[in-house]
Amino acid sequence: MEEATDRIARPWGGRTPYGRHETWPARVDTFLAEGVAPDAVERWVQSASILHSDGDAMDIAVADGRMVGVRGRDVDRVNRGRLGPKDLFGWQANASRDRLTRPLVRRGGRLVETDWDTAMDLVAARSRELLEERGPGSIGFYTSGQLFLEEYYTLAVLARAGIGTPHLDGNTRLCTSTAAEALKETFGCDGQPGSYDDFDHADVIALFGHNIAETQPVQWMRLLDRLEGADPPRLLCVDPRPTQVARHAAVHLAPRGGTNVALLNALLHETIRHDRVDRDFIAAHTVGFEELAERVADCTPRWAADICDVPAARIEEAAELVGTADALVSTVLQGVYQSHQATAAAVQVNNLHLIRGMLGRPGAGLLQMNGQPTAQNTRECGADGDLPGFRNWQNDSHVADLAKVWNVEPERIPHYAPPTHAMQMYRYAEQGSIRMLWISGTNPAVSLPELSRVRSILTQDRLFTVVQDLFLTETAQLADVVLPAATWGEKTGVLTNADRTVHLSRKAVEPPGEARPDLDIFLDYARRMDFRDKDGGPLVTWHDPESAFRAWQRCSAGRPCDYTGLSYAKLHDTSGIQWPCTADAPEGTPRLYTDGIAWAHPDLCESYGKDLETGASQEVVEYRSLNPDGKAMLKAAAYLPPHEEPDEEYPFQLTTGRTIYHFHTRTKTGRAPQLRDAAPDVWVEVSAVDAERLGLAEGDLVEVAGRRGALRGRLRVTGIRPGLLFVPFHYGYWDTGNGSGPGPGTPGRAANETTITDWDPASKQPLFKTATAALTLVERGDGSPSPAPTTTASAPADGVAARPTAGGEAARTTQSPARFPHDPEEGVR
Amino acid sequence: MNGITLTLRVLHRGERHLAHDLVTVAERHRTEHEVHHVATDLAGWSRDHVRRLAEVAAHHGVRLGDPPDTSSDSVLATLRAKASEAVAHRPGPGLLLLRDLRELHLAAAENSLHWEMLAQAAQAARDSELLGLASACHPRTLRQMRWTNTMIKNLSPQLLNSL
């Protein structure tokens, strides 16, 4: 029976309960623009969400050549027809009147409209000049987690073998590089071990720094459905905020920021002390157990309790939960990845699964998550500080293999050092050795830490900045050339979610004005630069999405992320399919490592590993002696205190994060009315205890000041951990008077005005969760509540008055039950 | 004084120096954020080595001092940090950085060799306390060397080609 729900007020919609080992039922969510009747829709065009990493499959409704709505795809394994609030409403941003429709170039200090030829000639001319005068190391590319696979792959080829620069990375550095690094450290190679289907079979689900209710709302619907069904799972939540996950958890730990390694070492200590380990699995599939056991021998719950400021008894309960589960799923996200000792902590979660033998079977699933919709593609295509196809830059035979695919000499591909990570690229730009930075699909002037520094880098005269985007973002406003790009629904390509599910997203409508698909822009550049292979033929031999996809398939052949069994036609007919997909596994692969550790052998592995505390690279000789047979590696790490601790001047810890209604810097979600109004402005979360102590109240205008900058926002009093402040990172300046940053009449608004420039030495992921700050009153509130949503982790504490978040008529979405047309998985009890 | 106490003394001095130099380099290269943060962490290892060396030396009748005070409140430290920020936009300090990393590497290598000597002497003398000390500390010295080597390997292509 069809029903309608306000999906701003009820972000997760209604329940479809199901029991353990049963099939999660389908439910089709549909939202059509006001005044569009279902029979007015002319076409439904296949796509998937690009506003988070879940990979929610949907069809775009088209009428009169315009997008007029979306409907979840009931046949898809990931979401089975469901859509989250961003999926339902975010598409409206595509038709914003302020889309970029013509290229812009800076003349006399101002950006003025021009034609494509002029803009691209300028970019190509500057590139050639720099190659001539300063060499390939003077050019850098900073891309995204929101383009399509075909675009990243093309960019990787033209940057690495065309220009020959080591400087190519994605903003995935900010969201997923720790996931990749943790998998490389443990399994020798990137690749998500688990599958979302594991949620159907687990009896315990542990979420480490992962607010899944807001980051992957559709999988949270799945957990809510299981919690209401027979034999529900018990949840462990590690998060300093009172998230929806925390509210539903059997055990909730809210540790002090930056102490994840101490907490996880205590969980490992308890697991080993109680002998809750799988000795056979350890012997068959791992190396390093003795050292791990020795290194955590002193890490008792009591020891960790002091460091984490969590009662030892709670840590013991958590250890019992994960230690006695018969099918454990763990998920990890930014609370670990963007915090102190990121990789070291994420690896300890891997260790927990290995010593418990919780890997490679239904319900025993490890999910090192990622944040962005196509971050997985940035990783596998080598647009993120790795070589394409998870090839090892330190292994000459891997480089030679890649050179063969590209028909270039191996020396043409920089591999004398690791590909440069984004934070180092910005340092090189600051120090003057990078002179051209091409930024595609991302907004570093709001999303990188310590924004005053970032602005000072991007505004240098000597740095030639190209920005390719949908809108005149804060970053685009500082650029020398702005290229108007098409987005999903206006172009065709493939994207892969956090559990390796590949989706096809087809073009439904024409892009606005002269905006072009990112692929076309990169192909145009490759043509103008006349990049050649070693026989004098063109380096880039493809001309459209499908031919680019086929080129990538050749590059992926025989690699862990093998796409050779896929095609556009197959993805169209089947909906999402998990890689590797080959002739031997034509229906894709639900889980990696079902039959031992496949890619850790010294000759196969993507990385020889790093020192988790210093980031020092290991060499092949060390790797061979540590792991000659290619097993999973149990790597221990000692707890180190965070680099910035609260003091008298800056007494709070400060963490940043997201809300369910927005994505990144709101370039899209801030232009979708329902989402914009659900969380219209920045706010500051503080605990009730701290608010009372400081005499502050809900709705007060406060300043959060750190060592590097300050911002202002309205106060929201919540059940957050005392001593901690939270600021959402979505808000910048494009919708303020000042445009690209704070200035006269525009106080600081972006969370990153206050964050620290510091990154994990192993994954190079910047740390957004461990700054410190002072909190002061600017102006008493007038009694109206802060703009923070009430439906989520930012819900007000008991007794605090706030207006309930609602979308009203404009957010009414239909949901109708449907039959999921596929059988339950084979091999499941 | 015998050879063991002599080595303890030399190593104690070497680790004191390395702790001091790591902190100095961290301050001088404040705008090289990874160097700044990791060098500060690694100075903690050397300070710990100094303390443990002094403890064991006491059992050998030798009095050795405490680790250097490396809190970064001193005027000099502030000056170094300010100087680093002042030249954040210039390429020149890149050469200085490579030189500093080289010096740190050599200092750590010297300590490593002394740990090796100490461990060998401890085995011959069947001094289990001393052997335990060397086994606990030497790996971290090797990791300090590996870190400086990695940083030099990763940074020098860019820094030396852009002057």
UniProtKB/TrEMBL annotation, chain A:
InterPro entries: Asp_de-COase-like_dom_sf (IPR009010), MoPterin_dinucl-bd_dom (IPR006657), Mopterin_OxRdtase (IPR006656), Mopterin_OxRdtase_4Fe-4S_dom (IPR006963), Mopterin_OxRdtase_prok_CS (IPR006655), Prok_molybdopt-oxidoreductase (IPR050123)
Protein's organism: Streptomyces rochei (Streptomyces parvullus)
Region (Disordered): 778-829
Coiled-coil stretches: none
Alphabetic keyword roster: 4Fe-4S, Iron, Iron-sulfur, Metal-binding
GO MF term set: 4 iron, 4 sulfur cluster binding; metal ion binding; molybdopterin cofactor binding; oxidoreductase activity
Record's protein name: Molybdopterin-dependent oxidoreductase
Basic and acidic residues bias (residue ranges): 820-829
Keyword Iron-sulfur: yes
Residues in 4Fe-4S Mo/W bis-MGD-type domain copies: 42-98
